[in-house]
């Protein structure tokens, strides 16, 4: 039913109407966003970027990243010519703090009026200067009901009965947050000992983990290669729709409430066209058609009128008040805390300081042998020439 509804909506929106606005047909904007995060014309959905080009003449070069940290590294590395990016809340805050975003001209984004009040003046952009909400959602657990009866707690990700079948986030904030919810911590704590305790819990889990992944979760869960994994609720619909064996739950300890927002980086070449693109995505009909396919929640009540009713009423997309009350929102961490988190995450992935030390010792050992061989050969050559 969902795809039929989307097809009918797409046909309605594509019907002959207003002519495309006058824009330079040679302009191409570069959009950098998450994978599987925009309707692309498959399964009867609207091709959002193609419709934008049809209306405006502006072409869209759309590429993807798989974590906020990957996005940040690309921007900091330089040479990235993006006009629109879609970071999550805490990363928006970090980019603002580091002067990496351009203030938006909201006169060019009149559809901002449709953004619900609860998403206005957010903690990550309190002055409403740099961002426009794109989606929101919560984090939960996907699990295969052929092997796992029920999931009620994050503890399931530490169950040794699922050893080798557990996936974890391949980014520090989401992975640490799971451990922090189990430990009853604030996910934005600045206490070094609390972060160390969370890291220790993740290290204890590591022998059970098959892989640290992001978008690879889809193939691994659908194929049965993995049985259980944490991920974003918006993707629950994709997995649940595609497999009768996949279910989704929000653990009782609480979870992360996130917002992904559209921003224009300081290095953008086409700010005006970027704002036109953001405005287009905020149009209720477009947002509805887009989110109906993507599976994430829209920050616009007006857009829910254009969703498949099954989606608009689904607790996967729009959790109840009790679930929302148990959530925490990430904020940008102070520099020292961020540095510690990065170091601890490296330890988790490497297996802890002990294993890291062994690896360093092995590398130094090989280096020592290599240097000794070079010295020996040079001395031998000198003797031969003497």
Strand percentage lies at 5-15%
CATH superfamily label of the largest domain: Periplasmic binding protein-like II
Q: Any idea of the CATH class of the largest domain?
A: Alpha Beta
Q: Label the CATH architecture of the largest domain.
A: 3-Layer(aba) Sandwich
Tell me, rounded to a whole number, the average pLDDT: 88
Measured as a percent range, the helix fraction is 40-55%
SS content category: alpha/beta
Low-pLDDT runs? 1-22, 353-363
CATH topology of the largest domain: D-Maltodextrin-Binding Protein, domain 2
Please give the count of helices.
14
The domain tally reads 3
Major β-sheet annotation = 5 strands, mixed
Termini separation comes to 88 Å
Summed up:
By secondary structure, the protein is an alpha/beta fold. It has helices spanning 2-14, 48-56, 68-77, 89-97, 172-183, 192-205, 217-223, 236-242, 271-282, 284-294, 309-312, 321-325, 335-350, 353-385, and strands spanning 28-34, 59-65, 84-85, 132-144, 166-169, 209-213, 228-232, 246-249, 255-262, 327-328.
Mind explaining what this structure looks like?
There is one protein chain. The protein is globular and about 55 Å long. The protein folds into 3 domains: 2-136 and 259-318, Periplasmic binding protein-like II (D-Maltodextrin-Binding Protein, domain 2); 138-256 and 335-350, Periplasmic binding protein-like II (D-Maltodextrin-Binding Protein, domain 2, 3-Layer(aba) Sandwich); 361-386. The longest helix has 33 residues, at 353-385. The chain is α/β, with parallel strands linked by helices. Helix 5 (172-183) packs across helix 6 and helix 6 (192-205) packs parallel to helix 13 (335-350). It has 14 helices and 10 strands. Mean pLDDT is 88; it is low at 1-22 and 353-363. The strands form 3 sheets. Strands 4, 7, 8, 9 and 10 form a 5-stranded mixed β-sheet that branches. Strands 2-1-3 form a 3-stranded parallel β-sheet. It has helices at residues 2-14, 48-56, 68-77, 89-97, 172-183, 192-205, 217-223, 236-242, 271-282, 284-294, 309-312, 321-325, 335-350, 353-385; strands at 28-34, 59-65, 84-85, 132-144, 166-169, 209-213, 228-232, 246-249, 255-262, 327-328.
